Amino acid sequence: MLIYKILLPNEWAEFQAAGRFDGSLFDRDSGFIHCSSRAQVPGTAARVFGEQPLLVVVTLDASMLGDVLRWEEAPSGGSYPHVYAALPAEAVSGVYHIAGAARVDEELPTE
Based on the structure, what is the number of domains in the chain? Predict the structure, then answer.
């Protein structure tokens, strides 16, 4: 199973340099790294990153995350994947550079 993390280009550069992603400021304030299922990615992109001109969406192999991955109910409804540890580079199975939130659904492959 794959889960998805939407990053800004500078966050992706930091992820690559460090070999891990410790989360955005919002993630760290929340106490976990916010991720999405494939079906949730377009809505998350529009809601959170709607004004950003370039996004990097990484696919993560959920089986490599073990018990630090938890599916939890969001206040707005729905169960979302939350990761309670840094994302390791080894879990990344795909990287997509996308020109804005409106293009996410058409540019990401379906599972």
Answer: 1
Query: For residues 87 and 19, is the Cβ–Cβ distance under 8 A?
Result: no
Q: What is the pLDDT of residues 62-91, one digit of tens each?
A: 999 999 999 999 887 889 999 999 999 999
Strands (E), the chain: 2-7, 20-21, 33-34, 55-61, 69-73, 79-83, 87-88, 92-98
- Region of residue 48 (phi > 0: left; psi between -120 and 50: alpha; otherwise: beta): alpha
Quote the pTM value. 0.95
- What's the CATH code of the domain at 32? 3.20.170.20
- The domain in which residue 29 lies consists of 2-107
Say which amino acid occupies 17: A
Can you tell me the distance from the alpha carbon of 36 to that of 95, in angstroms, rounded to the nearest whole number? 15
